[in-house]
Amino acid sequence: MIDGQAVDRRVRRTQGMIIDAFLSLCQEKEVGDIIIKDITDRANVNRSTFYAHYEDKDDLLSKITNEKLAALARLAREQTMPYQPDFDTLDPYYVALFEHLADNKLFYSVILGRLADSPFADQMAGTIRESFYTRISNISKEQKLLIPLDILLDYISFSIQGIITKWLAQQMIYSPHHMALQLTRLSLLGIYNAMGAAEKR
Predict the structure, then answer these.
(1) How far apart are alpha carbons 68 and 103 in whole angstroms?
(2) CB-CB contact of 72 with 131 (8 Å)
(3) pLDDT value at residue 85
(4) pTM for this structure?
């Protein structure tokens, strides 16, 4: 008799094969040109197996995206230990973010590469924006923002996503740890200090 855990493992394995097949195909051709047979052939499963898990190609992409973006959204909420900004102490959110991206490189490479003009890339920027809104909301209310919140959140989310896109396009030439350290330092320095253009006091 097969227990529930064994069934769950088998289901996850099958879904993983289908997802990996689909994402690898996305790197080779336009999503609109991919048919179910392409996916099942690449994943080495039959059509009935595919349809047991997904309604169609759009449902597959939607479920992958929702799962990954939900995981991305959890990163900020899971940072329960207070972080004291320091030039040589990595911000734990950036560490978790870049480790998550590295663990899911294929998905994010597709979303920010082949599907960069799709709503999915905008959803990712929105998820990062919400993560920083959560972080800012957790800061003492006595701290007064120096920049309007909407401008601050837009700047943070789009600049970070731009850096992520470039990093993935360059095949992650820097380690997640290195990227986390650089973003920690950029966050502390600000643009003008990082450029060495700030007025010396």
Answers:
(1) 11
(2) yes
(3) 75
(4) 0.86
